[in-house]
Amino acid sequence: MNQDEEEEVRVSGSGKITGGKYGKISITGSGRVEGDVEAREIFAAGSAIFEGNVKAREINVTGSCEISGYLESEEVVIKGSLNVGEIIEAKGLKSYGSLKVGKDVIGEDIYFAGSSEIEGDVEGESFVSRGSFSIGGLLTADEIDIWLGSTNSAGEVGGGRIEISKRSASLEPNPEKIKNGVESLERGLGSLGEKLGFSFELDEERISRGLTKLGERINYYVNEIGNGKFNSSLIEGDELLLEGVEAETVRGSKVRIGEDCVIDKAEYSDTIEVVENSTVNERVRI
């Protein structure tokens, strides 16, 4: 039975929803949607299966979601896992979890921070990656900004400004700042304690040890980002800033080949710069 556009449906246990038009679909248990569906908002926090095409103004996935057809939306946010059989077309796409797409991704602002596997092309105005991804076809955007994490790849890359970089950083706790912060917090808690009749004491040494362990974990994660590689047959843009890249051909107006690159041929029309620990077999001015 089709539902009117403003009806809101919720599956909190196990259930099925008939395709049609809805206001909001919320699945926090195990839900199956039979047929094509349109909605103002879709929220999937449990296990959701859509047996058809999906159109929604906004879709938020914090659990597991499978769509057998295409997904069309203004805003897609993924904090769990999303598997789409055909294409995704969205103005804004942010993936912090796992994303798999059987065909293309078309959008305006695309952000990958988890693990993404796209069988076809990825096309946007802005593409930013802080995770790992594989793109079977062409990655194209006006602005491309990739921090390398694990192994990343795209069949070809095209755009305006393309930056692929290996990032590393260090987070060390500052003893003086810790001391000042603890003293400031103690004063605030002291004032609160006077009003409530309680006494608060903070262990500065314990806090410092905790922050040191946190810094070590963050450093490990950030350094892992910097150990990645990027593989492609062709990278072409106006301005190229490359690190950790292995490619057959790179082509641009201004080209900088940074550290840890292996390039068969570099073609440039304005300037080229190659650091010592990278390899470029052939340089051609065009």
Which helices and strands, and how do they pair?
Blueprint: E1 8-11, E2 14-27, E3 30-44, E4 47-51, E5 54-61, E6 64-67, E7 71-78, E8 81-84, E9 88-95, E10 98-101, E11 105-112, E12 115-118, E13 122-123, E14 126-129, E15 132-147, E16 151-165, H1 175-196, H2 204-225, E17 229-242, E18 245-257, E19 262-274, E20 279-285
Parallel strand pairs: 1-2, 2-3, 3-4, 3-5, 4-6, 5-7, 6-8, 7-9, 8-10, 9-11, 10-12, 11-13, 11-14, 12-15, 13-15, 14-15, 15-16, 16-17, 17-18, 18-19, 19-20
Give the tally of β-strands. 20
Give the termini distance in whole angstroms. Answer: 63 Å
- Nearest-angstrom radius of gyration? 24 Å
User: Which regions contain 5 or more consecutive residues with pLDDT less than 50?
Assistant: 1-5
**Which band does the percent of strand residues land in?**
over 45%
Shape: flat
Average residue-wise pLDDT: 87
H/E element order = EEEEEEEEEEEEEEEEHHEEEE
Structural class: alpha/beta
Biggest sheet descriptor: 20 strands, parallel
Number of discrete helical segments: 2
Helix content: 10-25%
Q: Keywords, please?
A:
2 helices; 20-stranded parallel β-sheet; alpha/beta; 286 residues
Task: Describe what this molecule looks like in 3D.
This protein is an alpha/beta fold and 286 residues long. It has a domain at 175-225. The protein is built from two helices and 20 strands. The protein has helices at 175-196, 204-225, and strands at residues 8-11, 14-27, 30-44, 47-51, 54-61, 64-67, 71-78, 81-84, 88-95, 98-101, 105-112, 115-118, 122-123, 126-129, 132-147, 151-165, 229-242, 245-257, 262-274, 279-285. The chain has a 20-stranded parallel sheet that branches.
